[in-house]
Design a protein that fits this description.
Layout lengths: L2 E6 L5 E5 L4 E2 H7 L24 E5 L9 H5 L6 E3 L4 E2 L3 E5 L4
Parallel strand pairs: 1-7
Antiparallel strand pairs: 1-2, 3-6, 4-5, 4-7
The protein binds FE2/S2 (inorganic) cluster.
Length: 101
C-alpha cells in the first residue's frame, strides 16, 4: 500500500496518508482532508476531469506514478509536474500541492 506525503505549499501543512495501489491522487488526498487546490480553486475547479489545470502537483519520485497523460501535455506542465486528478499512485511518493491559483 503506497505511502503519500502531501505538503501544502500554501499553508506548509504536511499530511501522511496511505492509498491503494493505483489509487487516484486527487481522490486519495481529498478523502484524507489533504488540500490539492490553492485559494479559491478549491471551489472553482473541474472536479477531476483534467480540464481546469488547477490541481497541479509536484511529485517525487515520478517513477512511482503513471506516465504523463494527454491532459498534462495540453496544460504544458513542467516535467516534474502532473495534474493531481490524472495521477495513479504505484509507490511511495512526496507531493507538493496548491501550486497554482
Ligand atoms: S481538477 Fe481540474 S484538471 Fe484536475
Amino acid at each position: 500500500m503506497p505511502k503519500i506525503k502531501v505538503i501544502n505549499t500554501e499553508t506548509n501543512e504536511t499530511i501522511d496518508l496511505k492509498a491503494g495501489y493505483g489509487a487516484n491522487l486527487r481522490k486519495a488526498a481529498l478523502y484524507n482532508n489533504a488540500e490539492v487546490y490553492k485559494g479559491l480553486s478549491k471551489f472553482l475547479n473541474c472536479h477531476g476531469h483534467g480540464m481546469c489545470g488547477k490541481c497541479v502537483v509536484e511529485i517525487e519520485p515520478m517513477e512511482n506514478v503513471n506516465p504523463r497523460t494527454i491532459f498534462e501535455n495540453l496544460h504544458k506542465l513542467k516535467p516534474h509536474q502532473k495534474l493531481g486528478c490524472r495521477v495513479k499512485v504505484y509507490g511511495d511518493i512526496t507531493v507538493k500541492t496548491a501550486i497554482v491559483d
